[in-house]
Amino acid sequence: MVRPFRQSVNARRASDHLGVLLSTLATSMILAAAEGHEDAGGFHTPSLSDFFPSAIAFGDTIFQIDRIWIIRIVATIVLLTVFVVAARRAKIVPGRFQAAVEFLLDFVRVQIVEEIMGKERAKRYVPMLTTIFFTILAFNLTGVIPGLNLAATSRIGVPLLLALWVFVTYWYAGIQKHGLGGYLKANLFPPGVPWPIYFILTPIELLQILVIRPGSLMVRLVANMVAGHIMLVLCFAATQFFLIDSAGTGLMVFGALTLPAGIFVTLFEVLVGFLQAYIFALLAAVYINMSLEEEH
């Protein structure tokens, strides 16, 4: 369990650090070049308002439909269609499409769930963690699909719902196996610790199983998708500004930098979208498995 967990942490740190570096460099270069043009109706930087588009229907109600809501529906329909078609056309000798779907399914089952939990324990949780992985992956990739251009996980609702699902699952699994008292004792009072340390350790452990675990799942996913969208918009909006709006000026040379940067960030966001789905599912498996262990 330790090896893949450490690998996921190292991969997450690498992606986060590279993302921060790219964002900082791109922002500094573009804003320095475009300074003074925003008021003239030229370049406009992305903002958090991008993630809260205007209502399409039922505005200012709990049933409000907006662009990101439509994106989630489209991604869900496409995801379900892929699996329905793969299931109905399944053959003993798979074609390329079936082989690709089976490869991803086996990846989740073997590399995430069974690697953490073992084969016997994993059987119960493979459907849940597979659903989480593919939902996050599909919703993340909408951020780089033309016409959608916004990750469906870049607003808190879906990550919150998935994190609560994991939270309820590892609490239920732990209580079912150990009972409420046994589960709390195993988590809040780990053995081998001098008793005075419990005054410090126990509140921290309680905060961890109540807030930190689901919160870390949720915040990490949202933050990466928000940062990725801002980087993409920054690069491509700057490319339009430099190559089209500023045609005939000395600023056009910057377009030769922002266009390849936008293409690179797009490919990088595909990698991040897959990586965040992997990390979310992996940590979910780790948390559930920890709740089933006798000692932590």
Whole-number total of structural domains: 1
Low-pLDDT residue intervals, each spanning 5 or more residues:
1-9, 24-41
Q: Report the major sheet.
A: none
Question: What is the number of beta strands?
Answer: 0
Q: What proportion strand?
A: under 5%
Query: How far is the first residue's CA from the last residue's CA?
Result: 13 Å
Counted by DSSP, the helix tally is: 8
Mean pLDDT reading? 85
Structural class: mainly alpha
Please bin the fraction of helical residues: over 70%
Question: From the alpha-carbon coordinates, what is the Rg to the nearest angstrom?
Answer: 23 Å
Q: Per the principal axes of the C-alpha atoms, what is the gross shape? A: globular
The arrangement of helices and strands along the chain is HHHHHHHH
In short:
The chain has one domain. 73% of the residues lie in helices and 0% in strands. The protein contains 8 helices and no strands.
Q: How does this model look, in words?
A:
With 296 residues, the protein is mostly helical. It has one domain (2-33, 67-292). Helix content is 73%, strand content 0%. The chain is built from eight helices and no strands. The chain has helices at residues 2-34, 67-88, 96-117, 119-122, 126-141, 157-188, 198-245, 255-292. It is globular and about 75 Å long. It holds the Pfam family ATP-synt_A. Key component of the proton channel; it plays a direct role in the translocation of protons across the membrane. The chain crosses the membrane at residues 68-87, 125-144, 156-174, 195-215, 221-244.
